[in-house]
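STRUCTURE:
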């Protein structure tokens, strides 16, 4: 007759400490890897027609572009005209007549003008010497 008994192996209890240590080490490596690239900060100072605008980004060119965005929202005469027309339009009234800075988040045409048309024109001024941009990165 065959024996129906089964062999049972009893494994000794293992400590969870090595697994916890490995998981903690892995988490630390991920945190360090993700945070190491964000340490760089570039600040661009744009000077145009006696006014100064500052832009910040990890990328040097984008920092200059961001400074130009600030010029466009604050002092560009074409944006001012577009904003005033939009503000009095039904869309501007429906948006609650936001500030020039907030209006770009309410209307795609205004956003595109500031971030593409005007900012690119401003960056070109820096290359032509019409505006001065100094960028420092750390």
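SEQUENCE:
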């Amino acid at each position: 007759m065959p024996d129906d008994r089964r062999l049972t192996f009893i494994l000794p209890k293992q400590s969870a400490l090595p697994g916890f240590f490995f998981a903690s080490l892995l988490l630390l490596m991920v945190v360090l890897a993700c945070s190491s690239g964000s340490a760089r900060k570039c600040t661009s100072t744009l000077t145009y027609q006696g006014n100064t605008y500052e832009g910040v980004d990890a990328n040097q060119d984008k920092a200059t572009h961001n400074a130009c965005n600030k010029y466009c929202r604050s002092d560009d005469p074409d944006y001012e005209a577009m904003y005033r027309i939009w503000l009095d339009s039904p869309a501007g009234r429906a948006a609650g007549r936001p500030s020039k800075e907030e209006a770009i988040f309410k209307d795609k045409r205004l956003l595109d003008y500031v971030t593409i048309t005007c900012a690119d024109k401003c960056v070109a001024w820096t290359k032509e010497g019409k505006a001065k941009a100094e960028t420092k990165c750390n």
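REMARK: Residues 42-137 form one domain.
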